[in-house]
Task: inverse folding
């Protein structure tokens, strides 16, 4: 297993367009987390899944954001009607059950909204 | 007051020096404390985690937690230029969400 992977690594889009990111977790991990990181800040929690169930969503996750993990394996994060303020690094992490303190991160998807 | 406070630096030290990185926090319910290293334009990499108060050592890295003072530290011995990165402290809340500090940028000067 090569760790958590994310695609695409970079995305440039125009304001108002929709974008979708994909995360493939470590195969035996049933928990999957999404974070957003802006320059000079630590990652901020967005949402997490245990298997296919979305258990927690941050107030940061406006109704333009939606995340899915339909079969409990990979996950997608979609942003509709992107705004310039959505420009950030979107990070995915995964962990085994009961080990939220041991999350392993992917390389991130850098989104630039022009 | 933010839940986790971390000085953003930058912190510059000569190669071979001992580095001390610190965070304070306000939520007494935190039980797990982590340190992540993040290189530029990469995802964070877990260095160490500690449960409750005490010390934990892994090679050149030592993590300390003082719950009475709500203060955690990471020490790096014999620092190397390859240690130059941003170091993020993090804690787990009661809902299993990680709360990160802003990160401290560290530069090890050859």
Result:
């Amino acid at each position: 297993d090569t760790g958590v992977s994310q695609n695409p690594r970079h995305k440039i889009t125009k304001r108002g367009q929709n974008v979708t990111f994909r995360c493939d977790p470590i195969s035996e991990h049933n928990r999957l987390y999404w974070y957003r990181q802006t320059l000079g800040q630590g990652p901020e929690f967005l949402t997490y899944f245990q298997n296919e169930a979305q258990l927690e969503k941050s107030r940061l996750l406006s109704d333009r954001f939606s995340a899915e993990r339909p079969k409990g394996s990979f996950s997608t994060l979609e942003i509709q009607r992107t705004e310039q303020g959505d420009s950030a690094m979107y990070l995915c992490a995964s962990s085994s059950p009961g080990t939220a303190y041991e999350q392993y991160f992917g390389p991130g998807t850098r989104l630039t909204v022009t | 007051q933010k839940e986790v406070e971390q000085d953003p630096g930058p912190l510059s030290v000569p190669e071979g020096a001992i580095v001390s990185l610190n965070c304070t926090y306000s939520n007494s319910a935190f039980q797990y404390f982590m340190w992540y290293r993040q290189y530029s334009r990469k995802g964070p990499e877990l260095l160490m985690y500690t449960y409750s108060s005490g010390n934990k050592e892994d090679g050149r890295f030592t993590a300390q937690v003082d719950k009475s003072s709500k203060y955690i530290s990471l020490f790096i011995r014999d620092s190397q230029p390859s240690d130059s990165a941003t170091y993020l402290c993090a804690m787990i809340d009661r809902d299993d969400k990680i709360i990160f500090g802003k990160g401290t940028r560290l530069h090890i000067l050859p």
Observations:
- Chain A touches chain B at residues 4, 33, 35, 40-45, 48, 56, 58, 91, 93, 100-108, 110 (CB under 8 Å).
- Chain A has a mean pLDDT of 94.
- The first strand of chain A starts at residue 5 and ends at 7.
